[in-house]
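Hello,

Our lab assistant flagged a job as stuck in the queue for most of the afternoon. It eventually completed. Since we weren't sure the result was trustworthy after the delay, we are filing this so someone can double-check. Below is the sequence as submitted and the structure that was eventually returned. Let us know if re-running is recommended.
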Amino acid sequence: LPPAAPGGVGGLPRLTIGFIAPLSDAELPQAAFRGIDRAAHRSDCRVLMAGARDSVAQEHTAACEMIAAGARGLIIYPTVRQGESGASDYLGREDLGVPVVLLDTCTPAQGQAQIVFDNRRAGADMTRWLQARGHRRIGLILYREEVHHPALEGRVLDPDLVRRVPPAEQHAALGTALADLLALPEPPTAVIASNDLMAVEIIEILAGRGVSVPAGVAVAGFDNLAVARRYRPAFPTTAPDFEQMGEIACETLLDSLTAGTRTAQTYILPVPLLIRSSPARHALSLDSHKGETQ
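-- returned structure --
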């Protein structure tokens, strides 16, 4: 990583901060980076970006390298910890020596300032929206390593309708999981997928089995990913604003650097539902709410 570059006010080196994401070219981290870069530009600040390649060890290394290269603060989109205990997580036990702001996939045990989405309410909203349309048997398909999902947190779903699939074997495992759900004495009339990519694949597998969506089985996703925006049949999803998240994270970090203090405050952003229909689409937020802090 290059050292801090000249070009700041009065010839002083520009303030440099770092952004670390699990995969630097993934859609959601790129959206967060756009918000970070926008806020940094307003303050004549430079942003270094690094990918952790979905490795906690590489994330830690990138953080240390950025600090050594002159980064005065860090924004980290944490790699999802899989089986690691909180006591072994460097984010919770190590002082990196600079202010740190965590995004989205962080946990309370990691401390630091955190910018997160109100996914618990989003899960409740999605489940309630499906229930309002007559669905009482709602399936949920998760990735195996996920400890929780907003739909689980927001509503108590029948555990018999929850299935987990390994990401590396998603296609084959999804087919098995769906066949299992549809073979139940009372099969689900709706299925919530872990994200939009999985929702698209579920719809295609159902179509291959002769099940129409949404008439036969309704399918819902999460995160408003690009793959789903023009997909037909359209399906409901959530619309988290990752650019806003990045912008708030950068402003929080810069405020901390200006004040010379560190905070462990958590800022919670709303997540509206996005209910698509062909050809028009519109956003729906049940019990809409603004960002709040805790």
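-- support follow-up --
The delay was a queue issue, not a problem with the job. The result is valid. The CA atoms of residues 24 and 30 lie 7 Å apart. Residues 242-259 form the longest helix (18 residues).
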